[in-house]
Specification:
Blueprint: E1 3-7, H1 11-22, E2 26-30, E3 41-43, H2 50-56, E4 61-64, H3 67-72, H4 74-80, E5 85-86, H5 90-97, H6 99-108, E6 116-119, H7 122-130, E7 136-140, E8 149-152, H8 155-166, E9 178-182, E10 187-196, E11 199-202, E12 207-208, E13 211-213, E14 217-220, E15 225-228, H9 235-255, E16 262-271, E17 274-281, H10 288-295, H11 300-308, E18 321-329, E19 341-342, E20 352-354, E21 357-360, E22 363-366, E23 370-378, H12 381-392, E24 400-401, H13 408-414
Parallel strand pairs: 1-2, 1-4, 2-3, 4-5
Antiparallel strand pairs: 6-9, 7-8, 7-9, 10-11, 10-16, 12-15, 13-14, 15-18, 16-17, 18-23, 18-24, 19-22, 20-23, 21-22
Bound molecules: adenosine monophosphate and glycine.
Adenosine monophosphate (AMP) binds next to strand 7, strand 8 and strand 17.
Length: 415
């Protein structure tokens, strides 16, 4: 039994902690997650204090969940102190930390992606935009919790949003530089790979649902639900993603002197003319990883250690279909209220991961935009879906909403 410290306290980190706990390890967490507190030790410490905390508590492995500490260089700081830490270095994490950097790398190494231009000057960006066709995509350069992407249906809307980002600080400093790119249509999928010493180990693929409401309507969110397997994506598409996108980027990062270790997440679109890159992330996706961690039969502890040591990784998966549906606070992703009491959690018979909750006077209350991820599995997607929505029906809280169509892209084909 090892001591594992998970950094981050959302749904993804709950799932990571749950997996380590199931593998028999002693779990610590930076951040307070009321569900993890039932089996692990949660501490509310600052990012800068993590290395000392890990040393004082003889932690065997630190597993960093979210992008912000990775982009801030937490892995480098831990490794400098001799602490075993899973995740990419600060330099390698730029692939997610800066969309301008990531686009520059894709361009330099011929990795397929949408046609784009990057701008730091508003006048130039606006001039370029006026010559494009709608729909068009605007992306804030920096981190914006999955919300820094605007898909504008008209050029007027795009001009308005551009001004908001570059002149009126929408998304704060993250929007000072902006990427303007062609709108791609096709089927999206998340291809996450463990990367160890330039070798790429693809996980099973999953699909997230980025828009807030049913039928893919509403604003982009951090993700409203995920499932696996996908019907519209073939093994050839996955191979194309590995061969044309992930492996070339891993090789490129090594050539540039910033070798990548950890999880490289390629957000891909299967377009009429091939698979193209929407974005790179440098960590487990949220909510994709929650369902994939339930599906993963191999030891996450062993995988993480093998990646750190540059050794080979072996992945074994459960054959069932898995689904996770986010219950979000009403008003998310714009303004949402905290504090509403969530009843009925004790009635659930399937795993539920806490994304943004808090314990107050013995009650679990809303404490974030995305609040819970209710998960289920079944022998096929239809069965898993029926089960998950049945479980959701047991939760009583008027302040939450959820999408009723998670998995619909793959179910249409099943009928
Ligand atoms: P990103 O943060 O770059 O993953 O963008 C968030 C979401 O916006 C993606 O998951 C897509 O659904 C959508 N998106 C981003 N870029 C494009 C694009 N060029 N064309 C169409 N949709 C896009
Ligand atoms: N589910 C999308 C992300 O983790 O960025």
């Amino acid at each position: 039994m090892a001591k594992v410290l998970v950094v981050g306290a959302g749904g993804r980190e709950h799932a990571i902690a749950y997996k380590f706990n199931q593998e028999g390890h002693e779990v610590y967490m930076v951040g307070i997650n009321p569900a993890v507190e039932k089996f692990g030790t949660c501490v509310d410490i600052k990012e800068d204090d993590i290395p000392n905390y890990a040393l004082e508590n003889n932690i065997d492995l630190v597993f960093v969940g979210p992008e912000v500490p990775l982009v801030n260089g937490l892995i480098d700081k831990l490794q400098e102190k001799g602490i075993r830490a899973f995740g990419p270095s600060k330099k390698a994490a730029q692939l997610e930390g800066s969309k301008v950097f990531s686009k520059m790398m894709m361009e330099k190494y011929n990795i397929p992606t949408a046609k784009h231009e990057s701008f730091s000057d508003y006048e130039k960006a606006s001039e370029y935009l006026s010559q494009q066709k709608a729909p068009i995509v605007l992306k804030a350069d920096g981190l914006a919790a999955g919300k820094g992407v605007i898909i504008a249906e008209t050029l007027e809307e795009a001009q308005h949003e551009l001004k908001e980002m570059m002149c009126n600080s929408k998304f704060a400093a993250a929007g000072a530089n902006v990427v303007i790119e062609e709108f791609l249509s096709g089927e999206e999928f998340s291809l996450m790979c463990f990367v160890s010493d330039r070798k790429v180990y693809p996980m099973e693929i999953a699909q997230d649902h980025k828009r807030a409401f049913d039928n893919d309507e509403g604003l982009n969110t951090g993700g409203m639900g995920a499932y696996c397997p996908l019907k519209k994506i073939t093994q050839d598409d996955i191979n194309e993603g590995v061969v044309k996108v992930v492996q070339p980027m891993v090789d490129a990062m090594s050539s540039e002197g910033m070798p990548f270790y950890g999880i490289l997440y390629a957000g891909l679109m299967k377009c009429a003319d091939g698979v193209k890159t929407i974005e790179f992330n440098v960590r487990f996706g949220d909510p994709e990883s929650e369902i994939l961690l339930l599906k993963l039969e191999s030891s996450l502890y062993e995988i993480a250690n093998n990646v750190i040591d540059g050794k080979d990784v072996e992945l074994k998966w459960n054959k069932d279909a898995f689904i996770g549906v986010v219950m979000a606070a009403k008003g998310y992703p714009e303004k949402s209220e905290k504090g509403g009491v969530i009843n009925g959690l004790e009635k659930l018979t399937t795993p539920v991961f806490h994304m943004g909750t808090k314990q107050v006077d013995g009650n679990i209350v809303i404490n974030g935009g995305r609040v819970l991820l209710v998960c289920a599995s079944g022998e096929n997607l239809q069965a898993a879906r029926e089960k998950v929505y049945n479980e959701i029906g047991k939760i009583g809280c008027d302040d939450l909403f959820f999408r009723k169509d998670i998995g619909h892209h793959s179910l249409i084909l099943c009928k």
